[in-house]
Target: RDD family protein
Amino acid sequence: MERDTAGFGIRLLARLLDALILIFFSGFLLYVLKGGFSIGSMSGVTWQLVYTFYFTVTPVVWSGYVIGKRICKIKVKRVDGKRVTVSNMILREVVGYFLLGIITFGISTLITAVMVLVLKNNRGIHDFVGGTYVTYA
Model:
């Protein structure tokens, strides 16, 4: 099966857009609930859990998209071409991205970036773990 996989640049742009969108909406929510906002409230374990939850659940509900990927016209698919499932996304985001990143002190994230840059199929460690790839929609 011939795939039009998304490369490093467009994937990075989509992640940055998602981070900005999440920061904006989380900041707004904190402002409404607490009457103020501090950049310190957007760090630590709580922020990482919100971020990971967003990247794990949203693609399952929204057919492989998160907001940044939708804007960039790319999406996550399973290697068999079907829609991603909760188990795919838990393996991809929680295990392959979040936990592996913590265990390796971020080294796996750097290796993933190189893999997406140099491999013909543009798949990173988290893609292999989750059985997914990112393609143009």
